Q: What sequence folds into this?
């Protein structure tokens, strides 16, 4: 359900970008910032299991 909503949000951003993409450069920068904030976070690095010397 969440993935479907995220996909819909991306589609709406694409549509908005096409509509206003030729109007103003700052609007495109704002849309890029929104995309960056809406992107899923990177998973944290996994720790190795077991005894580590060092």
A:
């Amino acid at each position: 359900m969440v993935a479907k909503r995220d996909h819909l949000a991306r589609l709406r951003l694409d549509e908005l970008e096409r509509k206003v993409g030729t109007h103003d450069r700052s609007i495109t920068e704002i849309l890029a910032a929104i995309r960056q904030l809406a992107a899923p976070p990177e998973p944290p690095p996994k720790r190795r299991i077991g005894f580590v010397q060092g």
In short: The mean pLDDT is 78. The radius of gyration is 18 Å. Residues 2-38 form one domain.
